[in-house]
Amino acid sequence: MNRPNSLPPVTVPSTRTRQRLRSRDWPRMPRRDPHVRMMARLIELAGPGASIIASSSRPWASATFIGAQHRVILRFEGEEAQPSATRFAESLPEAEFSISGHIVADACVDEWGIEATDEGESLAPSGQTSACPTLRVSILTVEDW
Fold first, then answer.
1. Which pLDDT belongs to residue 124?
2. What distances in angstroms separate CA 21 from CA 11, 26, 27, one per listed residue?
């Protein structure tokens, strides 16, 4: 026996499906990544003999704040490399970073190292090994509400 032409059965979406559809209607604001602006400010603060060897950024959150943790390796080169690195390391914790939408909560030098400029032992004219100070820096940024 055939059924007469009738409307198809009505299906009601589950609660989970309705919630998922609702959340798509009001998408979350995209997070603003301050990493590039942070790197530019670090180079400005470090001075002309500094260069960034490596950098990384990862999301960070606490119970009340959302932000990012940035790790940077800076190398200082030139005649004034050692004094420049020392000045940078001393001034970093108190430095002012003006990054719109973000506050720098913590900035510190985690590790201080010396790298030889060449693979071999190259001697400077004074008889000392020519080396470049290398700093590993950690910076914590928090999104400003």
1. 41
2. 16, 9, 10
